[in-house]
Amino acid sequence: MAIISIKRRSEERRDGSVALYAVFHLNREKIRIPLDLYVKACDWDPVNERVRGRGGLVRDQNLIIENTRGKINDVLVRARLGGIQLTKETFFTLYKQPHGGQSFIGFAQQRLKNNRRALACNTWRQHKSILKKIEAYKPDLQFIEVTPEFLKLYAAHLRQLGNGDATVWKNMTVLRGYILAAVRAGFILKNPMEVFRVKRAAPHIIYLTEDELKLLVDLYRSHELDDDDQDVLRFFLFMTFTSLHIGDARAITIESISDNELHYVRKKTRVRVSVPLSAPAQKLIVHYRGDRKQGVLIQGLTTDQNINRKLKIICARVGIFKPISAKAARHTFATLYYKKNKGDLATLSNIMGHSSLAMTMIYAHINQENRDQGIHVFDTLLC
Q: What is the Cα–Cα distance from 312 to 304, expressed in whole angstroms?
C-alpha cells in the first residue's frame, strides 16, 4: 500500500497560510494532489498531519484530508483488484471519476433515461429490467469493478437464477452497450468485452406448421370461441398474415394501407417496410377498419400478457401444445414464406424489416426437415 503524506507548500499567502497537498509515489514517480486547503504554520500538526484546534471549520478541513487519503487508497485498491496497471495518467483518470456518487449502474440508468425517446417502448422496458437485475446483484458497482472476471461471475449468477443461454446472452449484450459508452466517456479504461465474450445461443424459434395454422383458421371460422378469445385469435392471425411484431401491429393505422400493401416503420430497427397483403390479411383489415377512413386500425385490444396467456389456451383447444406467444405469429409467417418461396432470404428480410440479412438467417436454420428431405434426392443414383 502506498504511503500517503499531507504536506505544506513553501509559498505563503499574504495572511501567512500555505496550501496543503497529498503526495505519494506510484512506480517511483511522485504524485501530488492539491487539497484546496490553506493552513497557517501555527495551525498545522506536521506529525499527525492534521489541522490543530476545534470547531466546525477544523473538523471540515480534517475531513477533507481523510477523504482525500481514502479516495487515493480506493483508486489504488480497485485498480489492483481490476488488474489495471496504473500510470500517472490512468491514476488521475480514475481519481477524477465520480466517487461515492455516480456508479456504473447510475451511469447506465442515466443514459437509458436520456435515450428514452430514441428507444422503442419494449426495448426501453427490456433495458430497464436488465439494469435492475445487475443493480440487485451489485448495487454499488463502480466503473473500475467492471472487469472480465466480474462479468463472468455475473453471467454465472444469471444462469443460477434459471436463465437460459439466450437470456444470458441478451443481458450481456445490453450491458455491453453501456460498458462501451462508459469506455468512450473515459470512466472505464480497459474494455472488458475485449476479453469476456458470451457465446450466442442458437435461437429457439416457436412457429406453427402449415397444418397447425389451418387448425387455428378453421377454429376462427367456426366462431366457437367467446368474443374475447375470438378477438385474440383474429389479432394473432392478422400478425401471422402480415409478419408484424405485436408492437408494430398495435400501431398500424388505416392511412398506412394502400394499393394492397401495408407501409410502416418498424419500431425496433427503424427500417421502412412494405408488406404485400394476402387475401386473408385484406379480409381481416376490412373487418378492423369498418367504415372508418383514418386512425389506429386495431382498437380495444387486451394487454400483451393476456394475449399470450389466451393464445396458449386457444391453441391447446385444437391440440397444439407448443409454448405459443404473439412472437410465434411473426415466426410462422417467416418460416412458411421461406419454405414456399424456395429460400428467398433477401425478399423475406425486406418484408420482415430486418436491418441485416444475418437476422433473417435464423429462418434458414429451422428448415431442417426440408434440408433432410432434399438431400435424399441423391439416394438412388449409385444403387
A: 13
Residue 5: all three cell numbers together: 503524506
Nearest to 274 by CA among 262, 266, 256, 265: 262
CATH number, residue 108: 1.10.150.130
Give φ, ψ of 196 to 5 degrees: -85, 125
Determine the structural domain holding residue 328 and report its residue range: 210-370
What single DSSP character describes residue 101?
Answer: S
At 124, list the grid cell. 426501453
26 φ, ψ (degrees, to nearest 5):
-130, 115
The model's confidence at residue 144, banded by pLDDT at 50, 70 and 90, is confident
Binning pLDDT at 50, 70 and 90, where does residue 378 land? very low
pLDDT of residue 376: 52
Both 108 and 84 in a single domain? no
Amino acid 100: pLDDT: 46
Determine the Cα angle at 271 with ends 265 and 273, to 5°.
60
